[in-house]
Structure formats: C-alpha cells, structure tokens
Amino acid sequence: MNNLIECQQVSYHYNSGKLQTSVLEALNLSIAPGESIAILGQSGCGKSTLLNLLGGISQPSTGQVFLNNNNLGELSEDKITELRAQHLGFVYQFHHLLKDFSALDNVAMPLLIRGDNKQTALMSANKLLSKVGLQNRLDHRPAQLSGGERQRVAIARALITKPSCLLADEPTGNLDTKNAADIFKLMIELNQAQNSALVIVTHDEKIAQQMQRVLVLENGRLSEV
User: Fold this and answer.
1) Contact 4, 68 (CB under 8 A)
2) Distance (Å, whole) CA 158 – CA 211
3) Closest CA to 161 of 129, 200, 193, 121
4) If you placed Cys at 171, which of 91, 133, 157, 160 could pair as Cys (CB 3.0 to 4.6 Å)?
5) Kind of pairing, strands 213-218 and 36-40?
6) Tens digit of pLDDT for each residue in 32-62?
7) What's the burial of 191, exposed, middle or buried (CB within 10 Å: 0-12/13-18/19+)?
C-alpha cells in the first residue's frame, strides 16, 4: 500500500436510544502523498466526521482506516496519537489557539510537546510565522490579532511539524472573502513547498476547483466529480 491514508469500506453510525443513525456508508478513499483533495457536501452530511476518521480522532463503526500503512483499528490510543503527531496537521474553521500564549509560542507548541529543544522550536516557529507574513506579530496574543492573522497562526502551527498530510475543516469559513482567498493561497503554497497531501472540507466550490481531486459526500457516500 503506497497511499498515505486509506479507507476501506468505512461506515460510521451513532445510536440515540433505540434509534441508529447512519452517517457514512461503506466508503473507500485513498490519499496519496502530495495530492490535494476537496470534499464538498451540505452541512450535516458527515464531512467533519470523515475528517476525524482520517485523522484517527474517531474510529469507524465498520471498516478500516490506514495511516502510513498502519491499521488504526489495531493500535492503542497512545500509538495513534504518536502517528498523528508524526504525519498529520489539523486546521479548523475556528483557530483554537491558546489565548494566554503569543503567536510564537502557539506555533512552537507542537514541537515543544514532542520534546524538541526550546530554542530550536522557537527558531522554527519564527521562520514559519515570517513565511506567513506575521514576522511583526510574534509576541502578540490571539486577542491582539485579526481573524485572518489568527488563522495564519493556526496554519503555521499545523505545518510546524512538516506533516505528511494537512487536514483542514472549513479553514476559511469564518473569514471575509479577501482573507479567505489569502488563507487558501497560503495553504496551497506551503503544502506544495513541503510536498504534503492536503485534504480540505469546504462549501466553497471556487476552492474545490483549484484542488487536484474533488469529492462530494452525499447520503453517506463519496463520489468523485
């Protein structure tokens, strides 16, 4: 298996009392190193659920998800967390930055958590923040940054470990048109520079059209456009 991430006959459902609700049905999906994929679909169709399955945050009801040839269903939570830290970066619609820390510290945090040298981590964070145009905002906390700036920090934080794949859940959905376009362009540029795969869940067809593959999630199933 040469794919970075692969789903084999993945289904997901949840129970509410005696009622079982199906979200995803027998999905097959492969993500190769370096490719870009957009996943479109109406609100509530299961796009975020699928992204959580790809990232090992949730486990499928049936089927298998592989990350770097590892079957996530056969691994402990600690091992999944380790693989996630090694191979994946996450960007969400809301930045989820640590409010009491500076932009520099927020971006350096994943490196510090995995045990990297503090000075080296801060230098790497400084360099990446400069790449995203925030060299003058290093010491600013999230409350002192605009929405677009906070999202740039979040993207830098997701990319600081040089992940094999970036998973983005509506990363521009909370931004105005100009900031959304700038953030998407930035993600593409950094993605290509690091040759990592990029998977974006979005409602924006203009964004989807710029990706190598476009998938539509409807009635629990994926189809390629």
Assistant:
1) yes
2) 19
3) 121
4) 91
5) parallel
6) 988 899 999 887 788 888 999 998 888 999 9
7) buried
Token output for 25: 């049905």
Q: How far is residue 48 from each of residues 41, 63, 77, 178, 187, measured CA to CA in Å?
A: 10, 18, 20, 24, 19
3-state secondary structure 10-29: EEEEEEECCEEEEEEEEEEE
Name the β-bridge partners of 29. 7
Question: 68: which DSSP letter?
Answer: T
Where would I find the H helices in 11-132? 47-54, 77-87, 103-113, 118-131
- pLDDT tens by residue, 131-145: 878 889 999 999 999
What phi and psi values does residue 132 have, to the nearest 5 degrees? -95, 15
Would you tell me the crossing angle of helices 103-113 and 118-131 to the nearest 10 degrees?
130
Nearest one of 166, 184, 167 to 175, comparing CA atoms: 184
pLDDT attached to residue 1: 52
Q: What would the two tokens of residue 52 be?
A: 């959580």
Q: Going from the N-terminus, what domains does the chain have, and what CATH number goes with each? A: 36-61+76-224 (3.40.50.300)
**Rounded Cα distance, 201 and 219, in Å:** 16
Q: Phi first, then psi: give them for residue 77, nearest 5 degrees.
A: -60, -35
- Quick one: tokens of 185? 């362009």
Distance CA 54, CA 90 (A): 11
Strand partners, 7: 29, 65
